[in-house]
Protein 1
Amino acid sequence: MLKKRRGGHVRPNPSGEPAHAARRRLPRPQWLLVAVVFLMFCCVLLTNGLVRSEIGVDARGAASDGPDGHVPPAVSAGGPVVDLTHGQPRTYAMPPKTVALTFDDGPDPEWTPAVLAVLAKHHVPGTFFVVGANVARHPEVVRRIRAGGSEIGVHTFTHPDLRRMSPVMVEREIAETQLALAGATGEMSYLVRPPYSSESSAVDDAGFDVISRLAREGYVTAFVDVDSNDWQRPGVAGIVRDSIPADGQGGVVLLHDAGGDRAQTVEALDRLIPEVQADGFTFTTVSAGTGLPVANFPAGPSDLLLGRTMLAAVVEPVTLVVPAHNEKECIAATVRSLVAGDHPVEVVVVDDGSTDGTADIVEALGLDGVRVIRRANGGKASALNPGSRPPATTSW
């Protein structure tokens, strides 16, 4: 669970649970099966969403052409980093001849390590705005980002246009990305970059509403003021040219480490960095260049547990235990729904002394990965542990 710390940035709730959690009542026994199956079904849905989600690629101009009537001039005419956490808009820009290289849409198992290798070669950090679904697929790559001295920001979980989503869905996109980060690195981030955004001058009323709501949760939004246009693959020379701030100014540069073939981006970085360093430029992260606090901070105990559970569900087969006592009317549909997803699951139906043929129905389905454990009646709560007494017999 997240809350704002002093200064307005997102911090984990130290307790990890609401104060009234200890007073929650246990479900009545007759609802236990319903509750367990419902939780299992939610886990399968979440896993399928992680595995099947498709990530788009940011493109300049996807946002509106300019601000609408409710966007404060301090935002539309200010720097690329927008902090609304204090009530009044504050914006920040890079100092002269200072560059923050930012990378969207990763991590990618091929291109993110290639980008990191170039940054390490030239002793330069970056800021990576990651997609939660990709974090869940490739947590080891995210750990490499942090180990190399770069920072991480949030780029949503499935890369939607947040302006077209309900507040509840926006919150879920951000929260699930934070959990993925917590599971992968043990850390979270207060930096956010909405997909399909570009310069702060292009923020419209709908976009301003999104970043305002995110600010109330402690998030600082990082737009860009230099677009490399690498998503168009204009050639290495073109990417280098478009990545250099004009007239010795500083800049937050938009690049990509995922979403397609990034060979041109990698090669352009290897040329860009020494070229502008020779011209007196220095490289930094978004937070360091703007004087903001360090973007990444330790996740709390609850977020760590949930995040690690999420990643385990994505990268490993899942075992679902279904306690059942006289469930002949619904057991076949329940089991079929649990094995219908794309993620590998094992379903263990623990038949708790049924007298209506529940176990026989499951066995007759003949489904791969479905196992039946028959046991004398001991109550559905004890049936959640297939190894508990009374003795059981197993069949496939």
Protein 2
Amino acid sequence: MAFISIFNDVIGPVMRGPSSSHTAGAHRIGLVVRDLLGAEPRDVRVTFDPKGSMAPTWESLGVDLALAAGLMGWTMLDEKYVSSVERMRAAGSAIDVDIAPLEETDHPNGMLVEILPREGERLRVIAEAVGGGGIRITSVNGRPVEIDGKSRVELVEDGLPTRKVRPVFFVRRAEAVFESGKEMVAVSEARGLSLGEAALAYEAELLGFTEVEVVDEMLRRLEVMERSAAAGLDDGRSDMLLLEPTALKILTAEESGAVAVGGIHTRAAARAMAVMHHCNSRGVVCAAPTGGSAGVVPGVILSLAEEMGLPRRRAVLALFAAGAVGLIVARRATFAAEIAGCQVEIGVAGAMAAAAVVEAAGGGPRQAADAAAVSLQNTLGSPCDPVAGACEVPCHTRNAVAASSAFTCADLVLGGYVNPIPLDEAIDVSYEVGKALPAELRCTARGGCAVAPSALALRPRR
């Protein structure tokens, strides 16, 4: 059974924006390559395939920054991160990007990383950023390997020193309690637990943590969400490529009655946009499940906390309920818009948020799963079409709408709607529809909104 963790793969990573594949994934690839090298890098060349999604978006999304920070051994939270390429050059190293066909990987987020250390042999690594900050190393110096950063790995070659790779995720201590939506609901009901409680138990058992340790870790991620929303409501901290910050204006207008309807839906939408403002200013956010969808779940959770006066533990359980839905998606599908479009990023975030609303409202695990399924059924066919290759247009408003929609999906199920298509099937359908999208609509900035005349006329600020 694949090792899928809420903290590793769903409510996380804690990262710098704007994209979990392009920043968190690339950063983790850099860390692993540094371990494989066993020395300080000197000349680094990164190659992206022209047909993939990295080639048209690497510059606007800062893939080189993330790789450089990882290669230097820095965390993503280090303030030096945003100047990592310049600092690497100042230290006597260089990172160059090339666009050329890659025959050794067909993943749209695949890359070739070639490094000449200060001493020793050249290193050649084929790597893939597989979505949501996940990674896969498939080749080292022409030899096939399987490295996903979730365990300690030692590579042994005749006559050469052992290459040791440290994990960049939490490691597994036990097998998963459930692996499908059907099993998830059955286990929850059999144990008399809400979906959030069942997910908390899942994560504690899987990682070998105590319940207190798991709750504390989720609280830390909730605090990151709170800080990112607050930062996004501070217009002076915005440094986006395309958009002017508007989240504060929307929230202020709602509070003064200057919008058509208002209410928790609008406030959640504004907070979701605030998180995305911060994410796209290279701020620290908690991916949920990705950087491009990082606003949805925080927008909903923070609004629920304000409207319902949720105690911290109930907010944590709502996050775990959201994480439970994401677990099943990670197991059955993907979080990579490059593979299946925006429906597996912002669409999935909306489904996770719908389950969180049900949990916060006291609904049962089956109702939470049904609310998530209904949400997924209404995002089928959603393309990933980032204007200018940035996660801003239309990503910010999609995060906002998904956050708002989560309340409606929850209300429909709690109000009596009987969902005929269960969560597992909704996930499978969403995945298949996403894969059927043409490449132009899967995070290449070559279709959809990205090629509208007004979009093509936009000029990035930096």
Protein 3
Amino acid sequence: MNPQHRQVPHSIATTRIAYFSMEIALEAEIPTYSGGLGVLAGDMLRSAADMESPMLGITLVHHNGYFRQKLSPQGSQSEEPEPWHVSEHLELMEPCVSVLIEGRAVWLQAWRYWIHGVSGYAVPVYLLDSSLPENSEADRVLTNDLYGGDSRYRLCQEVILGMGGAKMLEKLGYAGITSYHMNEGHAALLALGLLERDLGEGNLHLATENDIEKVRRRCVFTTHTPVPAGQDQFSLDQTRQILGEERSSVLEVTHCCPEQVLNMTFLALRFSHYINGVAMHHGEVSRGMFPQYPIRAITNGVHAVSWTAPPFQQIFDRHVPEWRYDNLYLRYMIGISLEEVRQAHLAAKSRLLEEVRSRSGVQLSQSVFTIGFARRAATYKRADLLFSDLERLRRIARNVGPLQIVFAGKAH
């Protein structure tokens, strides 16, 4: 039987893994992601669907998307919302839950999106939404903007993702989750939510080391950015205001607040039994930053089918069709002719240059070596590294041949 035609129903009862991420790249028409973190999250869940893993995803609905960017002729960026029609892509779930923010109940609903694997197995992703009539106008917009607003807005969103996500899964009937995966520190309050669920609301002050260990055995943490800019931090005053005195006290006594600041990375590290970086060198740097924690390294992977250009997909399908089910089959592509590779590359390059022309009006050359740089415009991603030695760049062009460069990416 062709595995593509086998339908495998999702089972709430057998789902064991919950993957929490502030952004998940589901599809281009759902602009709820900004960069590599969301792309990796989406690829993780697509691979889980292909592998028929008993897994689900949790994120926020981000009604306004991750803004639409415009650049002036002088290079200045301006932004505007990129709203999308949620009901056209997602299925509204019935239950609602509430989380306590600044001492009041903020109600949440969830929308469901299905990721289908090559066998027909489906992994659900639940997108949390605070735009309910029971909430104040200020609370309704808490799930509108990805990385929008100020630090208060950000911490409120992280309460919704971590603590609200844990409550929503329980309400949806997922009683068998044994592993909670926090993708970056944005989801770290999940650990506090699990501890509160174990002890009962209002009983966090009774938490013992054994209670914390029970949470640790269920939590996994992936850290992505080994620089201070990649770690969410909030003042203790703001933490007390949003989380309340009891929750804040627990975070302090569990050593999640170095230098009187709630550090989400420390919170996730403290409450996880398995921690990993996203490359070998990244693991080494992270161990240097947090020497008291055992940080492994798992090199970032991509969902090959999603990111392989159509001309190369056609070659792979023709020679080794099994690659769609198991990427290891791509090792057999070493035997294909150089001419086939060259023709596929030229076809993909033509498509890129046509996209550049349609967006910018600039016609680049098909015969010139082309460098692409598509990353968020954050300083630590070093987009300016290429221009740090202009004479060396000129020398390369003189000695090796001309080159042209395509930059893409948004700045927060």
Protein 4
Amino acid sequence: MTHTLGLCSGFRCDGGVVLPGAHIGGQLDCRETILTANGCVLSAERLAVGGSMFLSKAEFIGDVRL
């Protein structure tokens, strides 16, 4: 089974998203998301995405680590 993670269409997180070493078999959809933090807003070292990763119109206020 392929799983998708959708953080899109108005998803907002004040504090950051942490996905180190995660495996997403399908898509990671971050279109039109807003992530803000003092420091790292998206921590995803060693992230594996089996499908596509979408970041169009995403707003990151802080550091992004992929």
